[in-house]
Amino acid sequence: MTQPSPSLTTSLDGLTPEQLHGFFVDWPNPPRPDTFLRLLRGSYRVVLAVHDGQVIGFVQAVSDGVLTAYIPLLEVVPAWQGRGVGRALMTRIQEELRHLYAVDLGCDDHLVPYYEGLGMRRGTLMFTRNYERQDGSPTG
């Protein structure tokens, strides 16, 4: 018997940190669920995949709301990977952002074909990282 597909939502109403476990698996310094919820609330757009009241995938966008947006995070919990959840999340966030001129994201080289399959084009990304701040905890 196959599991039913998760539902997609753009609403954060009623979302609690308890519904946000299982993400950031390989991060050495991951955000806690309460910090994760703050991250989602501070986003321009968010799409969540929910199954049995638990968030099993998400994608977020930050934006000026006029011309540009950046998609910093797309994640699906390991047990749900390879089932089309990420593709559904990306398709929905692209719909949410279609009114903008530019939507960018950065990814590892092995993920380029995945995003090309969603209609995105390869580009160049420059970045800096402060891994001491990776968990998103408030600065003192």
TrEMBL record:
Entry keywords, A to Z: Acyltransferase, Transferase
One GO CC term, this protein: cytoplasm
InterPro entries: Acyl_CoA_acyltransferase, GNAT_dom, NSI-like
PROSITE patterns: GNAT (PS51186)
An example molecular function term from Gene Ontology annotations: N-acetyltransferase activity
Coiled coil region boundaries: none
Presence of keyword Nucleotide-binding: no
Residue ranges annotated for the N-acetyltransferase domain, each copy included: 10-140
Protein name: Acetyltransferase
